[in-house]
Every structure is written in structure tokens, then in C-alpha cells.
Amino acid sequence: MEKIVEPNAENILSKSFIFIMAMTCGICAGSNYYNQPLIYSIAEALKVNADQVALTIVISQLSYAVGLFILVPLGDFFEKRSYICLLMCCTGLAQVGLSLSQTLPALYGFTFLATFFSIATQVLVPFAAGLASPKKSPQVVGTLMSGLFLGILLARSIAGLLSTVWSWHAVYLVSGIVILVFAWVMWVKLPVARKSHQLNILQIYGSLFSLAVHQPHLLRRGLAGGIGFGILALIFTTMTFILANEPYHFNDFQIGLFGIVGLAGVFATPWAGKKIAAGLENKIAVICMGLLISAWIPLFFAQQSLVAYAVGVIMAYFGLSAFHVLNQNLVYRISAEARSRINSIYMTLYFGGAALGSFIAVYAWKHWGWEACAALGLAMAMVSFMIDRLDFYEMNKIAKQEKAP
Q: Per-residue pLDDT for 404 more than 70?
């Protein structure tokens, strides 16, 4: 756990600063999703197949997962303010490099670097949770996650708009500059933290495996959340394929604009935070899983009805957004001193699931079409539900044992 050098941590977390941190989360996380509505535009500019460009979505998720495993644990080793700002600067510079890409290898390489370093959000969220009081912490996490999800949603629309009006290169140039500006803002606003533990880097990484072995609860939450996020990755990876072709023929901006239907997820996160504070975790989990499963009824008709498609996306986005906040709050309770490492394990599984979902989407679409994607998405939702129920069963069993005389 860190000791805050600057006093009155609660005073630091003013409403305005929480809002700024939420914006930072949205800007950093959203930058990883600009490529989703731009697949055909980038393919045309680089004179390659859309399938080849679509692989950048898989690369983004894999790179982010690798960054989560390698870089996030170091948040328990380095002073957090400096580390967060360094990661953001690396991301901003990589985004500028991505804007200059003229070949497929350059596109792949800068995509990997930009998303690899963009994990600053995953250091910032547990840091902010630690600054808040235990009572206020769920709401702070919920607000920051609202910013993250809103950033992802708006990123697709902004990317589509800039690409339509200017070019896809402008999307990443503007993104890189904005991230660099917010890195400076975080440097000015965040408190300086001093470590209270003496772990070295090898011990930090060793403790990751120790946590994974001795905390099956963490692994179950990570797997359930990761498979859930894989469902959303499948939906958004195929969105361009569905909307750019028959019967819709949407352009980049229209595709990005359609993604805003997931705005319901922004309202889900503060709702989940309040319900968690009230001790209604199991109820939230059941509602979320129900939405992720039933969303596939309207989603199955995505190529026939835009309304049905929108309804399915809203249901899935709301369900996953609230489920993610629930999972984070549950795993943060394991150990306050190891929050960065706990978050690293959870989020590595989370984005590993997204990478799997993106790969399934590209492969299944190419070989079998949307119906196969929908069937696989439903199967993933059922698996996530079973893992979630198993974890709550184990948590309840442990709670009863602790209460027994």
C-alpha cells in the first residue's frame, strides 16, 4: 500500500478531479478502439484486405493483455503518479507513430505499442480506489469505469467522424496529442505516493503467481469477466462487417455513431456501485448474466433489423458494464496492499477474453457468417454464467464456515 505524501487524500478526490480522472480513463481506454469502425478505410488506404486490418483488433486486445500482465504489477513498485504519466506519454507518442503508418507491418507494430502502454487506466483506477474511504471507494470506481466505458463508446464515433471528414491518420494524430496533454494534467493533479512495502521486481512478479494459486476467487472472477468481455469484443469486432455491407452500407461515421447505442453501459456502472455499497452483489450478478444471455435473442437478427441489433447491443453493454464493476470491487477486497497485482491478474484475464472474442469473431465471420458468431456468443455467455454461479457458491460456503462456532 502507498502512503500519500500530500495530506488529506479525501480532499484530493473532489468531484471535479474524479471527473478529470474519469476523462483520463476514457481517453486512454478509448484510444484502443478507434480501429473498429475504420477497418475498410485503412484497408483501402494501405491497399490490403479488410481481414488483414481486422487483425489489428486482435493485436490490440492481446497487446493490452500483455501490458496488463507485465506493466500493471509494477504499479506496486514504482511511485504511481510518475508511472501513470510515463505510461500515458509512451501511449501518446505511439499513437502519433501510428498516425504516420503507411504499411501493414508499421500498422501492426505501432498498434501493439500504443495499446501495450495504454494500461495507465488500470494503475489509476486502483490508485483512486485506495485514495477514497472504504465507503466511497465503490462509487469512485464506478465513476471512473463510467468514464472508461463512455470513452470507448465515443471513441468509435469520433474515429468515424474524423476519418470521414479528414482521414484515418488524423484519428491517431489527434488522439496522441490529447493523451500527452492529459499526461501533463495527471502530473499536476495526482498526489505523490510513497511505497510502504519493500518488494523488489522479482518478488512483485512472483507474488502474481502466488496470488493466482492461492486466490481461486480471483481467477473465477477474472474468467467470468474475461469471457463476458469476449462477448462484447465479438459484437463490436463484427459491427463493421455487419453495418458496412448488405443491407445497411454504413460509412465510417455511421458505424461509429451506431456504437453509441451502448451508452446504457455508462448508466450501469454508477448503478452497480451503489448496489454493491448496499451489499446486493449476488442480485447484480444475476441481472447482469441474464442480460448477457438474453441479449443474443435480438442480436441474432442483427442483419435483418437495425432496431433488434441496437436493443441487443444495449442489453449486452449494460450487463457487462455492471458486471465488470462488480468483479473489480469483489477482487479489490482480497488485499489492499496488492491491488495493482490483483488488478493485473484480473484485467489480463479480462482482456485475454476480449482477444479470444475478437479472434473468434474474425474467424467465424470469415468462414460461417453472423449466425455462427451469434451461436458462439451465446455459448460464451452460458459459460460465464456457470463460472459466476460457482464463485458465488464458493463465497457463500466460506462465509458460512467463518460464521460457524
A: no
Q: What is the pLDDT of residues 331-388, one digit of tens each?
A: 988 887 777 778 788 988 998 898 899 999 989 998 999 999 999 999 999 999 999 9
For residue 134, what is its C-alpha cell? 472504504
Distance CA 66, CA 112 (A): 10
Say whether pLDDT at 9 is over 80: no
Look at the chain and count its residues. Answer: 405
Query: Can you tell me the distance from the alpha carbon of 175 to that of 156, in angstroms, rounded to the nearest whole number?
Result: 12
With CA atoms as reference, report the closest residue to 45 among 154, 155, 166, 173.
Answer: 166
Q: Go through the domains of the chain in sequence order and give each one's CATH number.
A: 8-403 (1.20.1250.20)
Rounded CA-CA distance 380/242 in Å is 20
Least confident of 218-222, 241-245, 251-255: 251-255
Rounded (5°) CA angle 256-317-277: 135
C-alpha cell at 137: 471507494
Q: What are phi and psi of 33, to 5 degrees?
A: -120, 5
As a whole number of angstroms, the distance between CA 405 and CA 350 comes to 38
Predicted confidence (pLDDT) at residue 3 exceeds the cutoff of 60:
no
Place of cell 465488470: 324
* Average pLDDT rounded to a whole number, residues 235-263: 86
> Which helix (H) or strand (E) covers residue 338, if one does?
none
Q: What residue type is 42 in one-letter code?
A: I
Whole-angstrom distance between the N-terminal and C-terminal Cα of the chain? 33
CA–CA separation, 65 vs 59, rounded Å? 10
